[in-house]
């Protein structure tokens, strides 16, 4: 059997469908690694996204550019393209210390030198009055080519910007399968989820507006680590920035399948079409395409802080 992207999507979906999520992550490790070692799969992921309807209408909503591989009732798998900072500083955080609640995560690195990361112990505690958080480091690690990591539920971690473009495949599932999975993935149920949840809560005897605060994010504040109730998000960048960085990625990974991309460019408004054809020509001529960063996505309080400040607060 030809092991193309379709093979891996079908095989992974089968594993996550027949096993409980935690067991599925363990069972799929070898397949994730095999997928990462096959560079043609990276090209197929890129090609599928480039040719998808409206792909080049997006804005740069995050310094990391994310391309969906598969998103169904059993697994969400995304290719994350980690862009370097303008000065290539590797001691600045991409996001606050954070955990993903009930989500399980397996990541594998198919391209690039990777990033540095810190994984924290699960048993952190938060002072409800001051939001001061007691948290300890579990391990610090580099995420080099073909490295595979599993991050458990409620496990805080942090990622630093890489020195050069690096890619990870990130596989997400909830820790337990439930009826909610269908609501999350089914378009009709998603559209009507509010009424469905009210209906379910009625029979469970639950209130639909329970005021529960759960902390997912943390940041250094002088000598302490504090939790924050509301995640600080990156402001949206421009469409032009998104397009240029996509072509930077294509050049960096050595993507050369441009025939279908030229045809797809015709679906876009004239200004975007001209931009796409210009970048395609630059790729064909071997001209350097530079990565560019959005000024509005640099030096954001509580998101971007130094390793030094982080370690100082952890003492």
CATH architecture of the largest domain: Sandwich
* Share of helical residues: 25-40%
The residue ranges in which pLDDT falls below 50 over 5 or more consecutive positions are 197-212
Cα distance spanning the termini: 54 Å
Class inferred from helices and paired strands: alpha+beta
CATH superfamily of the largest domain: Jelly Rolls
Order of SSEs? HHHHEEEEEEEEEEEHHHEEHHHH
Overall geometric form: globular
- Major beta sheet, specifics? 5 strands, antiparallel
Beta-strand residue fraction = 15-25%
Overall structural domain count: 2
Radius of gyration: 21 Å
Write structural notes for this entry.
By secondary structure, the protein is of the alpha+beta class. The chain folds into two domains: 5-178 and 214-235 and 301-314, Jelly Rolls, CATH 2.60.120; 239-285, no CATH class. Helices cover 35% and strands 21% of the residues. The protein has eleven helices and 13 strands. It has helices spanning 5-18, 21-27, 29-37, 39-50, 180-185, 187-191, 193-204, 239-253, 259-264, 270-285, 307-314; strands at residues 65-71, 76-82, 97-98, 103-111, 116-120, 125-126, 132-134, 137-142, 148-151, 157-159, 166-174, 217-221, 224-228. The protein has a five-stranded antiparallel β-sheet with strand order 1-2-11-4-9. The chain has a five-stranded antiparallel β-sheet with strand order 3-12-13-7-6. A hairpin with a 5-residue loop joins β6 (125-126) and β7 (132-134). α1 packs across α2 and α8 runs parallel beside α10. The chain starts with a helix and ends with a helix. The relative contact order is 0.17. Residues 197-212 have low confidence and may be disordered.
